[in-house]
Amino acid sequence: MSHIKELDFLLLNEWLDSGEKLPVxxxxxxxxxxxxxxxxxxxxxSTGFRGVFRAGVWKPRTRPNAxxxxxxxxxxxxxxxxxxxxxxxxxxxxxxxxxxxxLKYNIDIVWIGARTTVSPFSVQEIADALKGxxxxxxxxxxxxxxxxxxxxxxxxxxxxxIKKLIAVHRGFSNxxxxxxxxxxRWEIPIQLMALYPGLPVFCDPSHxxxxxxxxxxxxxxxxxxxxHGLMMETxxxxxxxWSDADQQITPNRLNExxxxxxxxxxKAGTSQINRELMHLRRIIDSIDEELxxxxxxxxxxxxxxxxxxxxxxxTIFQLERWNEIMxxxxxxxxxxxxxxxxxxxxxxxxxxxxxxxxxxxxIPYPSFTDKTLSSD
Length: 376
Ligand code: PEP
Ligand code: MN
What we know:
single chain, alpha/beta, TIM Barrel, Chorismate Mutase Domain, subunit A, 2 domains, eight-stranded parallel beta barrel, 8 strands, 9% strand, elongated, binds phosphoenolpyruvate, binds manganese (II) ion
């Protein structure tokens, strides 16, 4: 990927002094009333929360006629939170005017939403408006699973001199309904972390899961993968929220989630080298898990093929098919720049296991039992 090394960012501990082991950004999806943001902020403080307070002031909505945020009117409410609680506040910006107002009202952190990250012109407009400002910027992944578009947005912000960057993984839209509201596609933030070791990457389990009961599991997974912090929508009365009611949680529930998360053991993490090593190992662990998952999927298909061959009385091994498989694997190996012999050896092993599975299924047919090769 040609983008590598083009981001000049600060490590999180060089600028975010939250004092917490796991930085968390919490607050409602939208600022609705002064009373709602104040009571949410106060309830957060009373649970011991010391992170950053978030609230959407301008809400880019997928469809018209939904609540589009209170706008400028809500900015003084956030100033009150800064003053009365000492928390830093974060809002979403989607154009130059939003940036100018965020700076005018001394908002501490801004974020670019998923529907804006997809648009390079909008991101550039925001970047230009941020020129000369020393404000941290969080960039949510674009709604589409496009890593380059996400990196491109980070680069645009970085190019105007902003080094306090956080990438926020909030999952990707799907056309079909799926378990979670957004598909996590974990491999995409993992690849981002692999390309830019140390780049602060947070997870937003609220928007990924879409339902409060799944927030913990998504948050835990992201922490296990080595993400550096969380953004979780928190509302004093989640069911009454004007936007994203299903995925918001109370300040108490947020606290329970934070307390229950298993954080990575950081004993070895005092030096930067060890930090990086730990981080890379976490990525490897997750890739290994994916490899095994993929192998399991392959073996399930092999069984179906075995069943089909058995029913249709087809021989297990067909040389042309085996040659075709090996040829395309060699081609993939060449395309991805990995050692051809290594790929061949792995495929021989995979094939051996396929033979085993199919011949176990076919054993009742004596004519097949002596076959030592299979092609699936
Ligand atoms: C939000 O954080 O409220 C929001 C609109 O998120 P996203 O841009 O991830 O949809
Ligand atoms: Mn929301």
